[in-house]
Amino acid sequence: MADNNLIRPDDNIQIPVHVGVIMDGNGRWAKKRGLPRKFGHREGAKNFRTITRHAKSVGVKYITFYAFSTENWKRPKDEVDAIMELFEKYLDEVRDFIDENIRVRFIGDRSGLKETLQRKMASVEEDSKDFDSMTLVLAINYGGRDEICHSVRKIARMVKDGELQPEDITRDLIEKNLYTEEIPPLDLVIRPSGEQRLSNFMIWQAAYAEFYYTNILWPDFRSEDFDRAVIAYSERNRRFGGI
Ligand code: IPE
Ligand code: IPE
Ligand code: MG
Fold first, then answer.
1. Which of 78, 91, 105, 124 is at 20 to 30 A from 137, Cα to Cα?
2. How many domains does the chain contain in total?
């Protein structure tokens, strides 16, 4: 809601170009209410749409949400099934973003997902590819280490086929073969729920990101909390190794 915005258009605030959000704390949110964990995931999924719209309104150009990691398959099957079902449902609703001029992209290993889901992902990406007010990136079956392996494997194939010499392998080339391709590096990573770790989220792209942690659980994370993170970011002194 506009009234709750802490950031005003004429404020002299440095807006991060790319924000990553580790949507954590759904399970604890449900547990606190005596509900099964899947209810927490449902609330969390609702929240990501609110925060996407809000991020666009403050001028963020790229926002990536970590929705399911390559390690999350370790969870009980009924929880994983519930999360996958939510993806199916929310992918239909993500289509609304197309009318809001938002491009939608997915990162992660799609081959591990159900075919119906893969098809929906491909069609949302295709239908939104010409929109440019903001890019919404959803990380599903995503792992940073996995992503780097995937890039290295592609490059190794090019070397094997004689298209490339080992000396041609540069930082740029590795980057171009990541799932994120032309998506810029992360400026700010927000992690709710009190945990202070990356949990394999965009380890390459976060090399010089600023981190913002809060104890608020993801389903309770509001637009004002997003603004607080952006304000904190704007007060940081980014040196990138310089002085
Ligand atoms: C994040 O919430 C959602 C996913 C990892 C899919 P969690 O389910 O990890 O919630 P907590 O950390 O158990 O509270
Ligand atoms: C990170 O949360 C993954 C997502 C939010 C999708 P986890 O809850 O899986 O992370 P850990 O296990 O606490 O590190
Ligand atoms: Mg968690």
1. 78
2. 1
Could you read off the pLDDT of 83-117 as tens digits, one per residue? 999 999 989 888 888 889 999 999 999 999 999 99
- Look up residue 15 and give its amino acid: I
Cα 24 to ligand 3 centroid, rounded to whole Å: 5
142 Cα nearest atom in ligand 2: 6
Look at residue 173 and tell me if it is in a domain. Answer: no
- Considering 24, 146, 187, 227, which one is annotated as catalytic? 24
What is the Cα–Cα distance from 51 to 49, expressed in whole angstroms? 5
Cα dihedral sign, 143-118-193-103: positive
* Residue among 18, 21, 17 at smallest CA distance from 139: 21
Residue 112 belongs to what domain range?
A: 18-143+185-234
Q: Find the 24 Cα to ligand 2 centroid distance in Å.
A: 6
pLDDT at position 3: 55
Catalytic-residue membership of 24: yes
**Does 154 map to a domain?**
no
Domain contains 36:
yes
